[in-house]
Amino acid sequence: MEDGKRVNQARFNKYACACAIVASMISIIFGYDTGVMSGAMIFIKEDLKINDIQVEVLAGILNLCALVGSLAAGRTSDYIGRRYTIVLASIIFLLGALLMGYGPSYAILMTGRCTAGVGVGFALMIAPVYSAEISDSSSRGFLTSLPELCISIGILLGYLSNYCFGKLTLRLGWRIMLGIAAVPSLALAFGVLKMPESPRWLVMQGRLGDAKKVMLQVSNSEEEAEARFQEIKVAAGIDENCQEDVVKLPRKTRGEGVWKELLVRPSPSVRWILIAAIGIHFFEHATGIEAVVLYSPRIFKKAGITDKDKLLLATVGVGLTKAIFILTATFFLDKVGRRRLLLISTGGMILALSGLGFCLTMVERSEEKLLWALSLSIVATYLYVAFFSIGLGPITWVYTSEIFPLKLRAQGVAIAVAVNRVMNATVSMSFISIYKAITIGGSFFMFAGIAVLAWVFFYSFLPETMGKSLEEVEMLFIKSTAPRKEAYIEVQQRSNVQ
User: Which segments constitute the Major facilitator superfamily (MFS) profile domain (predicted)?
Assistant: First the structure.
């Protein structure tokens, strides 16, 4: 790439940033639902007289339904576009929030939770994909990490909602906590309509004229826009010198046959990309973040905090820590690099999880209250959340959205998000049962062991992608799995119609 283009790309495009922020706002709604449920479950259990198994199912069912939503979102976004997929996600979540806020019974509450879960699946898949597709290589890490930052802001707002509305009557408090999420869902559905469509999706539809107009808006100069536009055309199998506004593309170029290319007969590079994407999403939740975010009141209660207000206040600290450190991470992703931050993050998580496991074990085995163990448990929890948020949390979404080739991106990310939701649901729906079986301290030692495996996986399978365009990232994986000539042939075969 020429030096002039690098200079242009080093400048920050405010319009692209604004679009990414709007697209990422749907993640605030999801984060809010996750955070608010951690406290709402205390009141729901008391009001609806449900047992721990029902609490686990209520906590985890959203993620199983999000699995369905994320798989559907991949194909949907290829058909109707990235922008309208975000609108659809907002509407689905709006319906779910209204049902949960109404919640006269456990069955209705579960119906609302399942509906919201489908919307969550759509949101988690589409927000980082849209952000990655409108950004350039110099700011992609920052813009693509915004959805994770918004999730953290939503979680913090959910915790604050617990603390504020928890003072209302038992019957009213938790219903307002859950139902109020309908308001931003409706606002976002209208706000997204003001955003441009992803230029890469427009190219896949053969709408080159529209794509070029959007590219001029999200680039800092005509030269940069033209250079990025030509890269996208080549990746889509279109002659880079083509000047037509509309071209008719084969169905395969528009997303047909993607599942076969991803799962049935993947090339060596696609296989590696899929392993990397599935692996990072698996370990994001297998290392226990959902146990801390969703069950932090129970963890702090086990550590020795018994007052309900103090439990919810300590939980607010988890949300605040998560938001602060993810905000910090957004400014380092395009400077320090994905790989280095990921390894530092996972190493810190191993130490924090081990410390939390030790402190909770000491508290459980002691007959008297251990103030030092209580204090260290809180510190270890906050440190774990901080290390997770500085690396593994945001990088999971950034990395996955940038490594898949253009034609495979939406449905490849959908598969990775489906794995993410399965692991989230597994941890959410089993944590109470696990800590009752092996003690709460033992459960965090287990998460620490899984984090060790995660560190080895990241070191072995995830190359650095910082500073490369989406098309260059594809070549990074191809060149590492085939000699230069075979790599060139593979790109040509993927671009051409078979």
Answer: 19-466
